[in-house]
Amino acid sequence: MNYKEPLFRPPAEAESLIFQVAYGCPHNCCRFCGMYKYSRYEEREYDEVLGDFKKGARKYLETQRIFLADGDAMILPFEKLKNYLLKLNELFPKLTRVNVYANGSSILAKTREQLCELRRLKLHTLYLGLETGDEELLKLVNKGETAEKMVDAVRISQECGLRCSVMVLLGLGGKNGSEKHALETAAVLNKMQPRLLSALRFVEVPGSKMFTGYETVSEYGAVCELRKMIEHLELAKTVFRANHASNPVPLEGRFPNDKSNLISGLDKLISSGGLNRKGPGQLPFWL
Ligand code: SF4
Fold it and tell me: Directed axis angle between helix 78-91 and helix 112-120, to 10°?
């Protein structure tokens, strides 16, 4: 397959066959995100993408899982997305699911009937970056979405049978905004009730363009923030993961059953004295 770099996929899509239906991110303005900083958004021609599907089917006919890249495949017009799914169903007889990155407004641009139809055609998981439930902070980081709309997008998608995997960013509010970020994110997640939830950590690096006054949260602060967020989560059926390499400690559990274990594990860590209180601590080499 010919891919145009940069190409990103969620960690859970490591085993999926990937097709790029567009290049880059249509929004590409979030202050904290450098993923597609140097690429211009471009929706690919239908026939060109179809050529990739056919090539993929010749080589990997047994494929069960497909990820459609890049940054917001859900923004494609309904008919185009539907036709892609119809083709994938035709070309890959063992296909079980097609997953995509999505934004709140691109989901809400589809009607309920359209979302249900996409689900029938095996669209399965929508990866959505909530980042924070703090509306003011969403504006400060130029997310281009409101938490209120993202709640609607997740609830409607899940009512239509789609699964939403929601990501939040620890440290996004900086030192001063940490508590508000934790509490308002928990409140919004409680309204969303996502089936999957991931917490990643944001650390400002040279080249990031965060808002004036932003101060990076220490390793200790990020763990306290996560603890506060978890304490206020009331989720009925959510798989939670904070095992991305950017996290100070890998965590995994299911809500509601594992909530108290997650909290007591974090309390032990907070009182261990082993967390860096002055800086972000050890980070993976790419941060
Ligand atoms: S919408 Fe997503 S991919 Fe696009 S700039 Fe924001 S965080 Fe990055």
Answer: 10
